[in-house]
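Dear colleague,

As promised, here are the two records you asked about, laid out in our usual form so they can be pasted straight into your sheet.

NAME FIELD: protein one
SEQUENCE, THEN STRUCTURE:
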Amino acid sequence: MTKKRWVIIGIIGTLVLLLVLGFVIINPSNAYDGAIAGINLANVSDGVHTGTFEDGRFTNTLNVHVENGVIIRIEIINDVVASFITNASEETFARVIAAQDTRIDVVSGSTITTNAYLRAIENALKN
């Protein structure tokens, strides 16, 4: 084989490898599966509740602050999401606080990330 053919085979092989790795890295997440259950704050005690959602790169841990039966603040303790999504957490938390529920519209372009946050919030407030 000529050197030119080896270069072409190498390029094609590299592209195939990158494509396979892309599917592995950007795989569908369990955060996307199923409906968000929602929360019942009537059964949640005041204080700081910690919740975690674990699913690969969408793993996060949040503190949910409840005062007088109302969510007043949500803070990130550990977050492993795509760094280019800068406003998904702020928008998600603002919507949850406004609605006092996790059944909200997801942040456009950040569906899986939003759902991962919502599941962590639900895990924090489970009875």
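NAME FIELD: protein two
SEQUENCE, THEN STRUCTURE:
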Amino acid sequence: MIKNYTSTVPVSRSVQHIEDRLVKHGAQKIVKEYDQDKKLAAICFTLMLNGREIPFKIPARVANVEKMLRGSVRRPTSGTYERIAEQAERSAWKLVSDWVDIQISLVELQQVEFMEVFLPYVYSPADRLTFLSAFGMEVSSY
């Protein structure tokens, strides 16, 4: 099973942790992007690198986590899928929080450069594409 699939950490706390780590590392202009259901879909931020302001967009693919969790249900009862949707949101954002924490720790320990790990999430607002999605390599639903 996936890490944090039973996380009880509220989404707001995971997101705050992400923002705190990014700000400590120099992030500016942090913006939250919401989907059509008014659920948090991504955290966007800018960072000055080599004198240039670089935008980034880090998504949490909650729907993919929800599909995986739904697949493990054998006999759903009343409210099962609503609880799964809530759990998927908590789990997805906790995973993103852990990932950001680990990547920034590696940067701080001079094991990697910031762009080595965050490059796939460089974002072009004009095209509404991340570096990774511009090459057709975006993770899709399964």
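A couple of things worth noting about protein two: The CA atoms of residues 71 and 112 lie 36 Å apart. The first helix runs from residue 11 to 24.

Best,
R.
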